[in-house]
Design brief:
37% of the residues lie in helices and 15% in strands. It has 163 residues and is an alpha/beta fold. Helix 2 packs across helix 5. The longest helix is centred in the N-terminal third of the chain and has 18 residues. The structure holds iron/sulfur cluster (SF4). The site of iron/sulfur cluster has 11 residues, from helix 3.
Length: 163
């Protein structure tokens, strides 16, 4: 046991020091200011998985961690489409999920926007309904497979600049 602690103290800390990402910081600042101005610091997103592999959702979950901390910018993921401004859609639009996706869109109060996430929503195949922009008015697409949290934040900022 003593040898274990001697080795531990001898080696010192092994964790990496957090790199400061200036670009991310600038994006966060602009995003926060747009959300404050246009949405009174409260932009709600309802995410619908229309048949994804779950990697896109995992990247979105990272947006709530203390590093990306989207809630601090006034952007929230909500459980009900009735409380949402944006419908964020991931996945390939399967036959089974399409009615639920359309139903969720119907429940969003106006004004409402659809943003697609990842490469799946624009895929075509005989096995799926495919191409979400054929059934919903998609305002913006965030590409990637999966898009990293920073890409998602960048995409949201780009989308908000356009509306
Ligand atoms: S875009 Fe890629 S990561 Fe996202 S759901 Fe589709 S296959 Fe998974």
């Amino acid at each position: 046991m003593i040898r274990f602690w001697q080795k531990r103290f001898g080696e010192g800390l092994k964790t990496e020091s957090l790199e400061f990402d200036r670009e991310l910081e600038d994006i966060r600042k602009e995003l926060k200011s747009i959300v404050k101005k246009r949405f009174a610091s409260s932009l709600a997103i309802r995410m619908v998985d229309s048949g994804s592999c779950n990697a896109c959702e995992a990247e979105c979950s990272a947006l709530s961690n203390p590093y990306y901390n989207l809630e601090r910018l006034g952007i929230y993921f909500v459980a009900s489409p009735r409380h949402a401004d944006i419908l964020l859609v991931s996945g390939v639009n399967t036959f089974n999920m399409q009615p639920h996706l359309l139903n969720a869109y119907e429940q969003l109060p106006a004004p409402k926007w659809v943003v697609t996430l990842g490469d799946c929503p624009i895929k075509k195949s005989f096995a799926i309904k495919g191409e979400i922009d054929k059934i919903l008015p998609v305002s913006y697409h965030i590409k990637g497979c999966p898009p990293e949290p920073k890409d998602i934040i960048k995409g949201l900022l780009d989308f908000l600049r356009q509306i």
